[in-house]
Amino acid sequence: MRPLWGLLSLGVLAGLWWLETTGPVLTGWPGWLIHAFVYLLLGLTLARATGSRTAGWVLAAWVGALNEVMRAFLPGHEAGITGWWFALGGSWLGSRGVRRPRRLPQDEPWPPEPA
To answer: What is the rounded CA–CA span in Å between residue 7 and residue 18?
Structure first.
């Protein structure tokens, strides 16, 4: 795990919590698009923190599911499958923004031997 990216992930989670609890209540397309953008950032930071695209996406998907449950208890917020689909899509795009490490050919030793 990379600590800097882990801290950034916690910062995005804190921003998401603020947006959902005390921020402006946005419904419909504006709310869904902002939802997708925040989850794009979360997917990116979690994928960087874990070093795995899939792990970052799965963690962000679970956060999105729990967030939709939390939204069901907040007055004025709409909770539903549509918000979760936008969270899934945004986190998938964010996690795909992480570059895969270059693979070495099998015949090259690692670490390279000094000449």
So the answer is: 16
Q: What is the pLDDT of residues 3-19, one digit of tens each?
A: 899 999 999 999 988 88
Which of 52, 55, 41 lies closest to 12, judged by CA?
41
Quick one: CA dihedral 94, 96, 97, 101, positive or negative? positive
CB atoms within 10 A of CB 61: 18
The answer to whether the CB of 79 falls within 8 A of the CB of 69 is yes
CA distance 47 to 60: 9
The pair of three-digit structure tokens given for residue 38, joined into one six-digit string: 């925040």
Per DSSP, helices labelled H in 1-115 are 3-21, 29-50, 53-71, 81-96
Query: Sign (positive/negative) of CA torsion 99, 103, 104, 109?
Result: positive
Enter the pTM of the model: 0.79
End-to-end CA distance of the chain: 32
